[in-house]
Amino acid sequence: MSGKVTVTLRENEGIRPLIASPSYRLWTVAVLLVTIVALRQPAVLAGTAGLFLFVMLCCGISLRMILRRMLLLIPFGASAALFIPFHTAGRPAFKVLGYTATSEGVERAVVLLLKLAGANLLITYLIAVTPLFVLIRSLRAIGIPAIMLEMMSLLLRYFFLLKEEARGMSKAQRSRGMKTSGWLWNALTYKRFGQLMGALFVRAYLRSQRIYMAMSARGGFEGGRSVERLAETDRTVPVVEVKAVSYAYGNIQALKGISFDIAKGTKVALMGPNGAGKSTLISLLNGLELAHAGEVRLYGETVNRSNEHRLRRSVGVVYQDPDDQIFSATVLEDVAFGPRNLGLSAEEAAERAAEALSSVGMLEYKTRSPFELSYGQKRRVAIAGVLAMRPDFIILDEPMSFLDPRGRDELQELLERMHRSGLTIMVATHDVDFAAEWADRVLLLKDGKLLASGTAELLFDDELLTQASLHLPRLARPFRMLQGAEDLRPRSVKQAAQLIWKLMNRGGEYAKETGKPLEGDRIAKP
Ligand SMILES: Nc1ncnc2c1ncn2[C@@H]1O[C@H](COP(=O)(O)OP(=O)(O)OP(=O)(O)O)[C@@H](O)[C@H]1O
């Protein structure tokens, strides 16, 4: 599964924009660009470029940054301008290798270069003082179609994610001795660089696959068709029935004939070591993949190509990395993406999105760019994106990963609230402590097989835990060290406190009976 990717868009810290409103800024730059295109006099163009440079320096944009941006464009402009003096009719000015340059040609080349420099300065100013996603949003104000902006926003977002991945990989390589400084690399460095590029390509491919899955899961490729929802379901029909299901990726058998049911309103922890088949099972439960053998039944219906879209309406999946799921320019738009795909109007979708954001405590961030959020906040937005589709069954893949302790507690509370609102929830997790405290039901997978299925009591079975590469919940460990208390299985801090209290009382009774205090070897022997 992918690691956390941090996207930095705050390249412009310490820079003061001259015009506060991004859309006014955009309009001003657009008007100035048109003016530059219209100007013909080299002296006026040079004066204008000088003025822009002065203003940019006053705004706090460093000369280094300006030169770096200029160097990106000027070589292209210069190579085009190089030929103009020799291809323009007029008074001969000088000769190079037998070719005659004209004065008019030289002036045209200078005008072109000055125009390019002026335009480049303006765009550098705009990019330096405006975060890219604010810029994209402002483009809407000048009439660029929403679909184009969505695409730009998506492309930009993944460009940055890949850039961050490349940076992370390169850092990791450098920390292991790869040297990339200087112009002349040795053969090994070139080889390592090639490997890095290859790995980046594979990562880009895998990420695009995950994005595709996350978008499909929210109905992104159904063209906003209004698909009927499932009728109100009978509580007695299991939400999920998995019967002898197998699935393979080519020769790799990911699931090997597994069977289980999930009743409505259950809190399920799907656990197992890496490569056990959890993510594969999730794709099958959401109808994104179909079983190669056996059947997956959702609300009593076998999932097949003809009903997968309809059934998927009732099953929401929150993927592990929120960066795979979130892509719109604002938080509200992103959460409204799923409802829009359900065929709802823009107003209805926005209403639902606001409601979902409120339920995850993120309503106040609705106009922000998802890029400006912390990882935990992005995860909440990703959950809201799925809740807004009002599923009956929600699956979360590793929701606790990369969250700080407070973030974990808050997420657990959110899961409880979601459950109280009537949802059936499945969480794929490696976190035994969370699963022991939260789950009503535990499914243990290993090597594509169902190792065990039952209550959270399974998480106290040493043999099973060893087989599933899990460990005993931390709260239960001290009790294992106390003679006479080994069988006590607290699943929450509260239960652990109650059990400790009981043990203390037991100690008191012993002292009363025997007239001796309880010491070491009876109960309190670690
Ligand atoms: N796209 C793929 N192509 C080939 N094999 C795959 C692919 N995805 C998964 N597998 C294989 O299928 C098996 C199950 O993988 P899966 O990702 O479902 O496990 P998982 O339990 O989710 O693992 P983890 O906890 O590491 O995320 C593994 O052996 C894995 O190598």
List the helices and strands and how they pair.
Elements: H1 22-38, H2 42-58, H3 63-81, E1 92-96, E2 99-102, H4 103-129, H5 132-141, H6 146-175, H7 187-217, E3 240-249, E4 252-262, E5 267-271, H8 278-285, E6 293-298, E7 301-302, H9 308-312, E8 315-318, H10 322-325, H11 331-341, H12 346-359, H13 375-387, E9 393-397, H14 405-420, E10 424-428, H15 432-438, E11 441-446, E12 449-454, H16 462-467, H17 477-480, H18 493-514
Parallel strand pairs: 5-10, 5-11, 8-9, 9-10
Antiparallel strand pairs: 1-2, 3-4, 3-6, 6-7, 11-12
Between the first and last Cα atoms, what is the distance in angstroms? 39 Å
From N to C, what is the helix and strand string?
HHHEEHHHHEEEHEEHEHHHHEHEHEEHHH
Mean pLDDT: 81
The percent of residues in helical segments reads: 40-55%
Q: What class would the helix/strand composition place it in? A: alpha/beta
* CATH fold topology of the largest domain: Rossmann fold
What does this structure look like?
With 526 residues, the chain is α/β, with parallel strands linked by helices. The chain has helices at 22-38, 42-58, 63-81, 103-129, 132-141, 146-175, 187-217, 278-285, 308-312, 322-325, 331-341, 346-359, 375-387, 405-420, 432-438, 462-467, 477-480, 493-514, and strands at 92-96, 99-102, 240-249, 252-262, 267-271, 293-298, 301-302, 315-318, 393-397, 424-428, 441-446, 449-454. It folds into 3 domains: 22-129, no CATH class; 240-467, Rossmann fold; 473-526, no CATH class. It has a 6-stranded mixed beta sheet, sandwiched between helices. A 4-stranded antiparallel beta sheet has the order 4-3-6-7, with helices on one face. It has a two-stranded antiparallel sheet with strand order 1-2.
